[in-house]
Amino acid sequence: MEPYAISGILLLSLGALLLAHLSIVRMRRYQKRLEHSEERLRLSLWGSGDELWDWNIRQGNLYRSSSWQNPVELKPSSQDSPPNRQQIHPDDLDRVTDALSKHLSQETPYFEATYRILSDDQQWIWVLDRGKVVSYDQHNQASRMTGTLKNIQHIKLAEERLQLFAQCLESISDAVVICDTAFRILEVNPAFSRITGKSREQVLAQQFELSLYPSRYMRDIKLTLAQSGNWAGEVQEQKADGQIYFAELNFNVVRDEQGQIQQYVAVFSDITERKTREEQLSRLANSDTLTGLPNRTLFLSQLKQLVEKQKHHSLLMFDLDNFKKINDSLGHQLGDELLCKLTERLSLFPRSKGQLYRLGGDEFAIQLENTNDIHTITSLAKELLKQINMPFYINQHELAISCSIGIVLCPEDGQDPQSLLRNADTAMYHAKSEGGNRYLFFNDSMNKQAVKRLQIENLIRHGLKEDFFTVYYQPKMDIHTGKLVGMEALVRFITPKRGIISPGTFIPVAEETGQIVEIGAIVLKKACQDVKNWIDQELFHGRVAVNLSAKQFMLPYLCEQIDDILQQTELPSYHLELEITEGTVMQSPTIAIDTMKKLRARGVHLAMDDFGTGYSSLAYLKQFPLNTLKIDKAFIDDMNTARGRNMVDTIVTIAHNLSLTVVAEGVEEKQQLLQLKQLRCEVIQGYYYSKPLSADDFTQFLRQQQPQKKSATVEQSALRSAASAADS
Known about the structure:
Layout: H1 3-48, E1 50-56, E2 61-65, E3 72-74, H2 90-104, E4 111-118, E5 124-136, E6 142-151, H3 153-171, E7 175-179, E8 185-188, H4 190-196, H5 200-203, H6 215-228, E9 230-238, E10 244-255, E11 261-270, H7 272-286, H8 296-308, E12 313-320, H9 323-330, H10 332-347, E13 356-360, E14 363-369, H11 374-389, E15 392-394, E16 397-399, E17 403-410, H12 417-433, E18 438-441, H13 444-466, E19 469-478, E20 484-495, E21 499-501, H14 503-513, H15 516-536, E22 543-547, H16 550-553, H17 558-569, E23 576-581, H18 582-587, H19 589-601, E24 605-611, H20 618-621, E25 628-631, H21 633-637, H22 642-657, E26 661-665, H23 670-678, E27 683-685, H24 695-704, H25 709-727
Parallel strand pairs: 17-18, 20-22, 22-23, 23-24, 24-25, 25-26, 26-27
Antiparallel strand pairs: 1-2, 1-6, 2-3, 4-5, 5-6, 7-8, 7-11, 9-10, 10-11, 12-14, 12-17, 13-14, 15-16, 19-20, 19-27, 20-21
Helix pairs in contact: 9-10, 13-14, 15-17
């Protein structure tokens, strides 16, 4: 072979080798690029959180590669469609199958479905499955399909929350307004239209404003929002139909991740009804329901304001003289009408207009601001007396009334509302005690008396705690035989340091403070205990009379209290008589009759004390289930005159006509005894026979009554028979 031929062959071989080498290098480079591409694809899928799947439809193989699930190759049966059928939630399976079938039959360009699959930890999670057929066989049937599976659990949860918030926003009763940074309205909820009467379309892109307020009001709101991020307050606004409503408005700032303001959210509710109710409640709380005048609550509030402002002012407090007698004799309804008529008259009185208050009952007050002038105050007080003294004509009754006025000056007579009110009340009390129909300025001597009254009140409280109250007994004697038939229990207040405190001193205070209720219960229990001891010793077989105060008698649990005391002391009820005054039963006759019937049903006897000094009606008197009528000492003392004897005779006749026993109290002279015997009075009590005695002294008195023991036994049997007959 020729040398050049060999050279040519060598060159061709070398070229072939070079080409082969270049081809191998190129192949390696391509392989490397492919590997890099696959790596980028794998990393991209890992970074996106998507899963890549490849489904060989003909072979029935499914390959999945995922960053949130381990790569897995499933080999479902050829009938399974979709291939991951066993992992799909039963509620989603039909929907996924339908979407896949449509794509495989070329009805849709790609397959897409959201559904729940069972994760490795056996939890249902939401996924977004997207895929596409990538090859078909010779029969144009899908043979291979690839796609991605994305975990959208967090997106689904966010959607659910957004849907929940949207539903709440739709159904919430409060109006919600979303504004941009220029306070233009971006969105409103249905409640906004319901409250304002303006549709969503009417307000979108409109400026949020409060039409009833000046522009500076909104500027202040914006400034507050910029500084603190929220604003809250009550505002008034106008509806589309012009109606005014009240709203409780709350503004809040919505910021982005950088802290920049993105939107403003306003939430408001219609509080018109609430404001109306509050106004009504305020009016009720601060107004007297009967007269419509400002009441005690508002009076004290405004008095406090005047004191805090350190303004000179004066206060006139007044109540009607003997108003209780009008209520007792003519009824509470007429008394209420009188108060209303009085209010009408004083409201027309120019100098009291806007300054008149009703503090309660028949008690009123007038505040004079910015004046301590004595002449001005005196002129007003005189004019007030004149106005009240003018007769009132109510229900065919002509009523002439008067009042007592107490006056205080601020700050001279007190530097706080409580002391001013207390001192005004003290001055009024003294005006009343001097006969009424007058005015008095407060002074130090009045204060001393008020302090003394307070000392008595504290002494009573201490006496109740230390058991300083005891019971004395005054005998009741048969006027014809001179024998003991009973006794009256009288309270005595005996202190270690001050000795005996007069009943006239402590009883009025106890009645005012309500302490009389506790005192009355003590007297009743001690009297029942003493009488039970005397009965057990066969020294006494009559009744003990115990006084009931007005406050005691009106107790709702009075009957039960008496039952308990009788049970504790084991005293039979027919040995107890309760004395009730005219004024007490006439405060509320209907209730009084009901209570008295309950007491009579228990076997307790009832007596009306101080008869003739009150305003009892004969029509009511015949309805009262009484056993005894007691004639007041004032009538007994007046029997030295013909008029006085005739009065006592009339009372005795009335009592006998009502089948009542008559007891005359305060008998001190034999002449009175003889006169009462002529007038057919049955029982007397008084100093003629005995003064009130302590329990020990009364025991000795009872022993002196014992010579005729047999007669006493007969008397006891007769007493019990009479009690049984009366109760039946």
